[in-house]
Design a protein that fits this description.
Largest sheet: 10 strands, mixed
CATH class of the largest domain: Alpha Beta
Strand content: 25-35%
Distance between the termini: 34 Å
Shape: globular
Number of domains: 2
Structural class: alpha+beta
Order of helices and strands: EHEEHEEEHEEEHHE
CATH superfamily of the largest domain: Pseudouridine synthase I, catalytic domain, C-terminal subdomain
CATH topology of the largest domain: Alpha-Beta Plaits
CATH architecture of the largest domain: 2-Layer Sandwich
C-alpha cells in the first residue's frame, strides 16, 4: 500500500488533473443515491487520508459526459508526497478514472472560479457501420452533413453573446447572466468522424450539446443560412437545434 505521511502541518491546497469515462456515472457532482465522479474521488481520498475531504471541480459535467482534462482541488492538513498521492488515488479509483497530475497550488486557488477558459469537444460519427469499441464516445449520425455550412454557422457564435437560446430548457433562473464569450469554435472532419471544438470563458448548462445539435441541423440543410445569428437574437430555446446525447461530449482542458 502506498504510504502517506500522517502528521498535521499547515493546510495545503492540491490541484488534481483528472481523466474519466463518464458512461456509467451520473455526472461529476455528488447526488443522493447516484454514482458520481466527485463521490468516487472523495471516497478514495477518505481511504488514503482517513478523514472526510471535499473536492471542488472546475466543470460539473453531466451524466455520460467524459473528461480528458477535468481539474479539481482540495485542502488538507496532511503532508503528502504528490507522487504517492497520485499513485494511491489511482489504486483506489475505479478503472474508468485516472489522476493524471497532482500539484501543490496557492491556498487561495479555486478550480472553478479561477478558470479563465474551458475547451469542450463534441464528436459525431457519420455513417452506418460504426466502431463498437468507440461507441460510448460519439454520437452516431447516419445522414449526410455539409461541413462547410456547419463551419459558416459556427462563425456567428464566436464572440461575446447572450447564449440563453443555447441553454437547457430547465436551466436555473438564478443565473446572474447568460452572456458568455466563445473564443474559438471549429468544425473538422477526419475520416468518418466530425469534431466540434469549442473554447469559451464559460458555458451554460447543455450549451455545447445544443450548439452541436444546431450545427448538425444546419449541416443537414434543415436551417436557412444565417440561422445561428437569428437564434442568438431571438433568445428562444425553441429556435435552436436539439440537445444531442451526452456521450459525444468531452471536457478537453481548462486554462488558468
Amino acid at each position: 500500500m502506498t504510504k502517506i505521511t500522517n502528521y498535521s502541518c499547515i493546510v495545503i491546497n492540491i490541484k488534481l488533473t483528472i481523466s474519466y469515462d463518464g458512461t456509467r456515472y451520473s455526472g461529476w457532482q455528488i447526488q443522493k443515491n447516484a454514482r458520481t465522479i466527485q463521490a468516487e474521488i472523495e471516497k478514495a481520498l477518505r481511504k488514503i487520508l482517513r478523514k472526510r475531504i471535499r473536492i471542488t471541480g472546475a466543470g460539473r459535467t453531466d451524466a455520460g459526459v467524459h473528461a480528458k482534462g477535468q481539474v479539481a482541488n482540495f485542502h488538507t492538513d496532511k503532508k503528502i508526497p504528490l507522487k504517492n498521492l497520485r499513485s494511491a488515488l489511482n489504486t483506489y479509483l475505479p478503472p474508468e478514472m485516472s489522476i493524471l497530475r497532482a500539484k501543490w497550488v496557492k491556498a487561495a486557488f479555486h478550480s472553478q472560479f479561477d478558470a479563465i477558459e474551458k475547451k469542450y469537444r463534441y464528436t459525431v460519427f457519420q455513417g452506418d457501420a460504426d466502431n463498437p469499441f468507440l461507441r460510448p464516445y460519439y454520437y452516431k449520425f447516419s445522414g449526410k452533413l455539409d461541413i462547410r455550412q456547419m463551419k459558416k454557422e459556427a462563425r456567428s457564435l464566436v464572440g461575446k453573446h447572450d447564449f440563453r437560446a443555447f441553454q437547457a430548457k430547465a436551466a436555473s433562473s438564478k443565473l446572474k447572466s447568460t452572456v458568455r464569450a466563445i473564443k474559438s469554435i471549429s468544425v473538422s472532419k477526419k475520416g468518418r468522424f466530425i469534431f466540434i471544438d469549442i473554447t469559451a470563458d464559460g458555458f451554460l448548462h447543455n450549451m455545447v450539446r445544443v450548439i452541436a445539435g444546431t450545427l448538425i441541423e444546419a449541416g443537414r440543410g434543415h436551417m436557412l443560412p444565417g440561422s445561428t445569428k437569428r437564434i442568438l437574437a431571438s433568445g428562444s430555446r425553441k429556435a435552436a437545434g436539439p440537445t444531442v446525447p451526452s456521450k459525444g461530449l468531452s471536457l478537453i482542458s481548462i486554462k488558468y
